[in-house]
Amino acid sequence: MGNALIFPDILLYLLDMVGVIACAIAGTLLAQHKGLDISGCVLVSMVNAIGGGTLRDMALDRHPLFWMTDLNYVIVITATSLILQMFFHLYHKIDNALKLFDAIGLAAFSVIGFKIALTQDMAPLIAIMMGVWTAIIGGLLRDIICNEIPLVLQREIYITASIAGSVTYLLLQRLGIDSGINEFIMLFVIFSIRMLALRFDWHLPSIRLVA
Question: Is the bond leading into 64 cis (omega within 30 degrees of zero)?
């Protein structure tokens, strides 16, 4: 009952859609910047938004793929990309909002991938990995298609935030915290770390041996 009240499936689904929209926006913006045509922009936004979840489902042998049974994903991504292409000249006005949605998407996708793996009775380490995959693989593929060095492989705080959220969930689970509350806390931890990293320009250090 607590889980149903605190974190109903519909809320997770809505957060998933927010993440999908954010990723579709990010993919379209980069594709437009690279001079891709209408269909190219839609394709890049599609890869960005559902690439991570697709790889996760393939790794976990979950069939059919989630976006094949729920066409809302394809419809929302396509509509978002087309609308943004029409108003691309207003990009500078939505930059801050994009960063906010990106952080929400990172948190939502991490929770979704992590929880799906747990429901498949995967080991905690695999569940953490699935959370990371769901959150960052789409962006990695987007950057590769657009001939960019993937942002998530640089010193940006993406993977670290996702892992921190998953570890927090596992620790609180051992303390007997309700799963619904725990999911909310995991979301908050990931979102907060990402936003703080943007606000204070946090980066992971490089590891170099001193000669």
Answer: yes
Q: What angle do CA 66, 193, 179 make, to 5 degrees?
A: 55
| Predicted local distance difference test score (pLDDT) of residue 132 | 96
Global pTM value:
0.85
Could you say which residues of the chain have pLDDT below 70? Answer: 1-8, 90-95, 97-98, 155, 207-211
